[in-house]
Specification:
NAD(P)-bd_dom_sf; oxidoreductase; alpha/beta; NADP; oxidoreductase activity, acting on the CH-OH group of donors, NAD or NADP as acceptor; Sc_DH/Rdtase_CS
Length: 330
């Protein structure tokens, strides 16, 4: 009983519980949680969804049952920003948000978008939404602030921002020989760039009163060490992103803004393909370290990024979700 009260209180503030919250909550009965919360004076908001909808239909013959789960994940009329959206994970996640109904702004460094981006833009138009390319440097506070503030002003809202721009840096250089410039470059893109993206989006959300979602793309490498690979710069930068999200979640939860991270594991992308070109045997090692015995695919992040961007995840702030070989875990 005491623990169920604690879970309800956690749902009302940013949390950084990665496993116990979800698993333990499944073992609690709704009645005990509600009665305990009421005895402690906790205000419980129960939308008419799922079990509550079924109970309503049983007691009210006028209540019309309808499927609502897809609407919970919808982003119709929403506005989303994705950095690193010209290809790879960023483009795939942007496409998923567009399919959910959002107007997309993909920010990246090349002067012109890639053929893959152009194909996605044409496809999004056929789906009835908009897919826009914006050239900007995530390491420039002035550029990111200008670009995202204009988007917020134009639409009067920002519903989701995915900070996916990132670099791996030198893949074969020992920490003994890693140059100051190379180390700083990785931190500048992967940590400072993520912060400047989040900062600009948060400003846009606060100024427009948007209760949106900030999604920072971290990595399993922020929590573990890629043994056999001298990736100290990359791993350091991704670890910083995890702590950044926890801090931002706690600071802006009061504004109704959610901040979470996604930590891709061994996912097959252009970055990992470059490593495998040098070390083909590494592919089997990475595949065997994934739960399903294979490398993950970029499309396997579609569901989790859409969930985090939608209202369905409204209480999950400061959480990190691992996506690796088809496996999602807290």
């Amino acid at each position: 009983m005491q623990f169920s009260t604690h879970l309800l209180k956690l749902a009302r503030r940013p949390c950084n519980y990665r496993g116990s919250l979800v698993l333990a909550s499944r073992s609690l009965s709704a009645s005990s949680a509600f009665s305990n919360a009421q005895s402690q004076g906790t205000k419980v908001i129960q939308p008419t969804l799922g079990v509550a909808a079924a109970m309503k239909a049983q007691s009210d013959s006028r209540f019309q049952p309808k499927v609502q789960i897809f609407q919970e994940f919808a982003l119709k009329d929403g506005v989303a920003v994705v950095t690193g959206g010209n290809g790879g994970l960023g483009l795939e996640m942007a496409m998923a948000l567009a399919e959910a109904g959002a107007t997309l702004y993909c920010i990246d460094l090349p002067d012109t978008p890639s053929p893959e981006f152009n194909a996605c833009a044409a496809y999004a138009e056929k789906l009835g939404t908009s897919f826009n390319y914006v050239k900007a440097d995530v390491t420039s506070q002035a550029q990111m602030s200008s670009v995202i503030s204009k988007i917020a002003q134009q639409h009067g809202r920002i519903d989701a921002c995915v900070a996916a721009a990132g670099i791996l840096g030198p893949t074969e250089t020992s920490a003994l020989d890693l140059s100051e410039d190379d180390f700083r470059k990785v931190q500048n893109v992967n940590t400072t760039g993520v912060f400047l993206t989040a900062q600009a989006a948060l400003n846009g959300m606060v100024k427009t009163g948007s209760k949106g979602s900030i999604i920072l793309i971290a990595s399993m490498s922020g929590s573990i060490v890629n043994r056999g690979h001298p990736w100290v710069a990359y791993n350091t930068s991704k670890s910083a992103v995890l702590q950044m999200a926890r801090n931002l979640a706690c600071e802006f939860g009061k504004d109704g803004i959610r901040v979470n991270t996604i930590s891709p594991g061994h996912i097959y992308t252009k970055q990992t393909a470059a490593v495998l070109d040098l070390h083909p045997e590494q592919g089997k090692i990475w595949a065997n370290s994934n739960p399903l015995g294979r490398m993950g695919q970029v499309h396997e992040l579609r569901g989790v990024v859409t969930w985090l961007a939608s209202s369905a995840s409204s209480f999950c702030t400061g959480s990190d979700i691992l996506v690796s070989g088809g496996h999602h875990a807290w």
